[in-house]
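Margin note from the TA: students keep mixing up input and output lines. Inputs are the sequences; the output is the structure of the whole complex. Example:
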Amino acid sequence: MVGEWDDDSLEQQGDESIYFEWDEADQDNESGLEIARNEQEVIRLPSGSEFLILSGEGAGSIVPTAPPGARENAKRAASGLRTRDNALSGNVPIYLIQRGASYYKELPSVLARLHATHGENLALGLIVRIPQATARSNTALFDRASAAAIRIADPCTYLLDTDILRLSDNPIGIRARRYAPYLLDGGSAGWIESIVDAQRAAGANLILSPGSAINPDRPQQTLDEACTQADEVASLLRPGERMALNLTLSSRWLSSDSLRTHLLNQLIDQDQFGIIYLRVQWAPTASFAQMTDLPLVDGIKRLANLCLDEGRQLILPQSGLSGWFALAFGSTGFGAGTAGADHAFTEFAIRRRAPGSQRVARYYETQLLHTVERAAHDQLAALSDYQACDCLYCNYQQSRMIWSHEAASLHHLIALGELAAKVQSDSERGGRHGAVRRAVRAAVRYSRGKPLVDANVPRHLQVWDQAL
Amino acid sequence: MNTQGTAPRFSQQDVTAALGEAAQYLGSGTFGDTWRAGNQAVKIICVDNYPRERLEREVEGLTRVRSPQVVALIGTDEILLGGKLRPILRFEYIEGGDVDKKVQEKNLLPASEVSHFLRGLLLGVKALHETSTIHRDIKPGNIALRSGEWSSPVLLDLGLAKQLDGTSITVYPGFIGTARYMAPEQLRAQRARKAADLWSVGVTVREVLTGSHPFYVDGQNYSVDEAIRKLSDGPSAVGVDIPDGVREVLDRLTAFEEFERGSVSSNLTRLDRAGV
C-alpha cells in the first residue's frame, strides 16, 4: 500500500535538513507551471504608460511597454499600485503572501493577478523569512513582485525560543545560521541592529521588531522586553522607514483571561506601535484545519476589537483562512503561503512519512471555506450546486490528467485573496463583520447535506458562525 | 497638590530670602512645598539628599511638553534653605485656583461645561503621554482652571510626585487614605501606566460633576481589598443630564481593566465622533 503525506509535513516533520534547509538551487530548477512559462499576459496600469506583467516571462514586473507578442488583458482596467503607506492605512484588507519552500517563483504572478482583479479592494504584500534564503534571493523576489506594496523580511527569531514554543528539536539549520547569523547570538550587543540590517538587506519596507516569543510564565517581564526591543528598533529607523511591533505568542496568551488581559493592557499602554504583527501558535490539527478552539477564537476577537477601536493595524501573518475570519472583528490583514505551514503556525508534531508515500492531493473549496481531499473535491464538483473556480490555476488543473499540487496551492492563494477583497467590496451592509458573517453563513448553508467525512468536514464553520 | 490646612515646612521669611523675591505659600505635597514667586509657582523639594542628577533626568522629558492644558515647567534650580541646598522646580503660575478649591466651595462642574472640561483634561494627558510621561496623580487638587474657567483645565505637578519617589502616593497598610483617585492596578501595587491617568480623569470628572465620589462613600474607610471590590462593582450612575458621548467616555475611563479604558486618543476620537 502506498501511503500519503501532508504537504505541510515539509516543515513539520522535524527533519532539520528539511525544516529550514531547502536548497535554493533545487528550487531554481523546479519545473513550475507550464502556464507560467508560456504566454505573456499584461495589463495596463492607470498611468497609461506602464504595464504589469500578469504571467509568462517577467510575471509580476512592471514594464514601460508591453513585450512583443504579449496579450493585453482588456477585461478590466487595473487600479493604481498602492504605496506601502496606503496599504497600511487599513482602508482595505491586507493580504500577505508568504514565500515558502515551494513554488515561490510564481508568487509575483499571483500577486499581480490579484492586483489586476481586486486591487481596489485589497492591499497586497509579500513576506520572506530571512533564515530561509539569501538576501540576494529575497531581494530579487521582492523586485519582481511589483504588486506587493508591503514587503516584510521576517527575522523569525522565535526559532530561538524552543523553551516557550513547540518547535522541532533543532529548528535552526546550517543554512539558516548562515542566512540569519543573528540567530547564533540572540540578545548580544548589537543584536537588534543586526536584525534590522538583515531586513534592510533583504529589501523589506516594513521593519519588524525581533519578535521573540513572549513567555506566559513571565508575562509582564517578557512583554516589557519585547516592547523595549521594539523601542530600540524605532530608534534605529531611518527617514521613510516604518516598523511593526512583532509578537510571537502561544495560544494560551489569547485563550486565558489573565494572560490576555496582560497582553491587551500592554498593547493599550504601548500605543506608540501603530502596527502589530502577531504570530499565534496553536495546537496541531489536521492539515488546513482552522481555528476552532472557542476561547482562542474569543481571544482573537477581543484583540482585534481592541485594535479596531484604537485605530491600530493588527496583522496575523501566518494564519490563512482563520486570519481572514479575524477581519470580521477588526484585524487588518492576514497571511498565507503555498505550504500548509504557511496557513497556520501550529505546534510542532512529528508526522512520519512512509517510504514511497505520495503527497495528499487537496483542494481549497471556495463555497465551503475549507480545504478538502481530492476525492471529496471530485464528489462536490459533480453536484449541481457546485460553482467551479475559473482562476488560471484551476483551468490549468482541469487540463491535466495528473494532479498539480502547485496549481492547487496557487489556486488556494488566489481564492483567499478574492475572499479578502470580498470582505471589502461586500462591506456596505454591516461593515467587514457583516461581509464575513454572510460568507460564513453561505458556506454553512452550502455544507448542509454534503457527502463529507473526517477532515473534509468544515467543523470550523459552526464555531465561527457562533462567534460572529 | 494638597494645600488645605497644611503648614509650610519653612517660614515665608526664609523662603523669600532664599528665592530672592516675595514668596507666597500655595500648598504642600509629599516631597515639598509650593510657593508663588512673581509669575512662577516654585516647588521646593524638601526631602533631604534627593539626587540632583535624577531630578534633571526626570524633568528633561517634562520640559518638552508644550500644551496649554499642562502647566509649563520652566526649569530647575537650587536654593539654600534650612542650611541645605535644595532643588527647586519653576512652573508657570496659573491664575484662577484649582478644582479642589472650587468643589470645596460647592461650585460643581456645570453639565454644560463637562465636555469641555473632559476634553481639556484628555488633551493635557495626551500631551504628557506623547512625551512618555505619566502623571499618576491626577486629582482635583492637581488641576488648575486657567482664569477660573472650567473649559480651561491645566494639569499641575506633571507627575513629579510619582517620578520623584515611587511611594509618593501612599496606600496605608490595610487602608486607603489619599488614594481616592487611584486606579485598581495602583491599589494592587502594580505599576501605574497610561491607563491609570485615564482612570483618574474619569473619577475626577465624575466627582466634580456630581459632588460625590463615583465609587466610595465619603468619610468611610476601606481596606485595600474592599476598595478594589468597590471599584470592580463599577461607578455610581451619573445622575446629571450630560451628552451620551460624554457619558460613554466617562464609563470607559472608569472601566476596571486598563485596556477597557482605551487610549487617550481613542477617547478623544469618541468625543469628536459624538460631536461633543
